[in-house]
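[audit] Reproducing an earlier prediction to check determinism. Same input, same settings, fresh worker. If the tokens differ from the archived copy the diff job will pick it up downstream; this log only records the rerun itself.
[audit] input (739 residues):
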Amino acid sequence: MPKTPPQSAPPPNVQGTRELRGARPGAPSVEQLADLERLLSLCEVQAIRSGMPFPFGAHLRGNGVNFAIFSRHATGVRLDLFAHSEDVMPARSIILDTARNKTGDVWHVWLEGIQPGQLYGFHVAGPYAPHEGHRFNPDKLVVDPYATAIALLPDCDFRAALGYDPSSPLRDLSLSETDDAATAPKCIVTHTDFDWQGDQPLRRPWETTVIYELHVRGYTIHPTASVPFPGTYRGLIQKIPYLKDLGVTAVELMPVQEFNESHLLRVNPQTGERLKNYWGYDPLCFFAPKASYASVHDRGAQVIEFKEMIRAFHREDIEVILDIVFNHTVEGDELGPTVGFRGIDNVIYYWLADDKRFYRNFTGAGQTINAAHPIVRDLILDALRYWVMEMHVDGFRFDLASVLGRDRDGHILADAPLLERIAEDPILRDAKLIAEAWDAAGAYQVGSFSERRWAEWNGHFRDDVRRFWRGDEGMLGRFASRICGSSDLYLGSGKGPECSINFVTCHDGFTLNDLVSYARKHNEANGEDNRDGTNENFSENYGVEGESDNPSLEAIRQRQIKNFLLTIAIARGVPMLLAGDEFRRSQRGNNNAYCQDNDTSWIDWSLLQRNSEIFRFARGVLTLRRAHLVLRREAFYTDENIRWFNPNGNTPDWFDARQKCLAYLVRTTQDGSDVYLMFNADAVRITFVLPPSLRQGPWRLAADTSQASPRDCCAPGEEATLVNPTSYVVESRSSVVLV
């Protein structure tokens, strides 16, 4: 008798609707069977009620938990509860009834007896029709978008989470029937109980803010950090006294929204080492703090330890700003995994192309969150409110923020509704808002991003200051604008200098040491043939590429590092430093170390002692900034309080591209000191004529980057009076501050 002929394949455009079913049988261990038997016996007496559609997520209500999840196009939803993170079989499954457990587009249920620490996830059924934008797959466990904690197995690469069959010639038009519950991330029910001990938002004004960007793991994971809980929130607490001593008033944490560090499949071609998603700019869940940054791995411990960290920072008057990603997720393009939004309602959560099989990619990550949709806008606002109200964070830096200001067709809006809602939200009124005012699709809005409530990473400051100190021609006017708050960028849009986050280095690019040690990037270890990372670094090696023991060359590099630190400190706007720059941390020329969870990225604290002169100088210039309010006012300079000079004491020729020297005199209020600043980016020493002090007192030397410690930066009140009150020799590539 002939075999049954194979079923004809469904048309590739639409593969139909997959219905939910009970949990598939597996091969559980004896321990799993015992747990299952115990939980099933409890289920017999536990009530199941229809529940409430709001709030979204899992919330303790009475003696149970209410679960609610949005999906407009789903045909069925099943809630699975698990005993262990690695379980194949759920301990309990509840298929939600469309009559009892669905209100509008929200699926909901209340379960009696559920406690904090319970693991859960959803299976969502619906059409698998990629060309129509639908990618439901009930065999994939998806995370609750509102989950406040995630259990993620180590070394999980998400290959089992592919919603399609990668072996099929149809690729993403096929459909995977592989159940991924054993490796899928699982949500954790958490509680809000925490003793904040009276903690309140610090509400520090911009004019007293100094931002320090760091990576939670990388800051203390190196053995030289000498902390009891390396690479964790608690490890970071141990470094608060150091940060306080440096003069930092706000830490900006690189992404702590839960992400999967193990989904990269490449290796370092030089060492064979598996590369990791170290930076974390592709979140799995917007509400959940990173679990691996907790010192213990109890379910929900990451929430408690994160709060402990915030409380500890606030006790020392240091704010915490989160680098937060709302522009894309870990799910990537059409060939990425199905772990969240894609399997819940793909056409709602992501921007799709005209052929809805594909995604619009304004982020460089394969897809873009559909921030133009009201449901997604509410999700983003709810997440921000959660981090402020429940986790007590002080502000946010929005990665690729221009994405959030695009309309349904991808065009940049002049008055983007979401950006206005964030700025005007009553809960977020005291939160600092910082935009990375560009995206990967060509938007560049530095100087004009939304309204005054929004500060911006000033990419022009970074580039112009780098080019001026490198000695590029034609930079005199640009440099003057940057150190005065960039009025050419912000004045026209009604913003002040406090909207300019002034930085020379950040996580994305060279460290400060590498900026003066490498003329080109060296990203070979990333496994992308050195194609990744920007080529426009405006850097210089001064004769030798990389490390050098040449004393004269090292003297130039040391001086240039001091110039950059001083420039950041004296510029109007908000200064930002990259962690480790204050003692010459190096990434060996790698300007895109996103995948380097190793010595390349980790902070080597032995450098603090080796480069103590740079640390002392960095601390000194921040002290100088605090001592002179005129340098940090939230207003642009006017002709009444600033005068510009060339070395001869005349007005600078702003149109002479060869000029690389300038000075300016700032007159302060009655209770302050006048300040005279001189900058020489030329390769030769220059004598500057000094103007008479407007206060008829002698000029005193506050800082000179050509000097060795301690004369390179003097503490307020300890400045030395100049021997010659009429002129001062500024060495090549040097800055001088007189008071």
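[audit] rerun output stored. Observation attached for the diff report: The mean pLDDT is 93.
[audit] end
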